[in-house]
Amino acid sequence: MELNNVILEKEGKVAIVTINRPKALNALNSATLKDLDVVIDELEKDDDIYAVIVTGSGEKAFVAGADITEMKDLSTIEARKFSSLGNKVFRRLENLEKPVIAAVNGFALGGGCELSLSCDIRIASEKAKFGQPETGLGITPGFGGTQRLARLVGTGVAKELIYTCKIVKADEALRVGLVNKVVEPEKLMEEAKAMATAIAANAPIAVKLSKVAINRGIQCDIDTAVMYEAEAFGECFSTEDQTEGMTAFVEKRDKSFKNK
Q1: Which domain of life is it from (predicted)?
Q2: Is 191 assigned a catalytic role?
């Protein structure tokens, strides 16, 4: 697996994915999106990874956006293909069975904000800044920003951010519900790893099925959604981890999950 713009590291049950184009503020070009797609392949088949952290290299940017140098001369057809590539990769990340935490260390603009939105949880450095500045460049968000942002923070706030190209600091992002937590810059990865480790300590299949139930249920009516939940709940009782978790609880001992 040869990667030029993305770094994949593994620490125990946690994988760390770093977008690595610091000279371009980690901007997303086609090559970087394809690298990320390859990394997702690797994460999907690795049963020993229970949680994933996504971050950016350097101190300035998580991902400053999609690569404008690549985009500026695209035709209509080429632009649609570029948007489709980004949406395909981000949708795969969103549907990855392992929970994904975005550790946002700096600018998360345009495609960078959209990348964070495709993750399950966002932890931001106090230096982080978020925004969808696309309309100021004559385009719309193209990697899911018009859809995920509205679902996360509501249509009113999403429309304000997209229409005005407003850049919000981490504290404002926390206030509107765009991020889960804001921490000091030097504690960002420590906090992300602590959360990933806490997730990885629980039954992986139960966490996976919880993610599936949430992602499916949020798209439909409540009656259908609770049916999805019942399916997930029932499926857990076919696993060794459910037996281990409940037996350990009754016996008042430490549990040992095996992802089975």
Answers
A1: Bacteria
A2: no
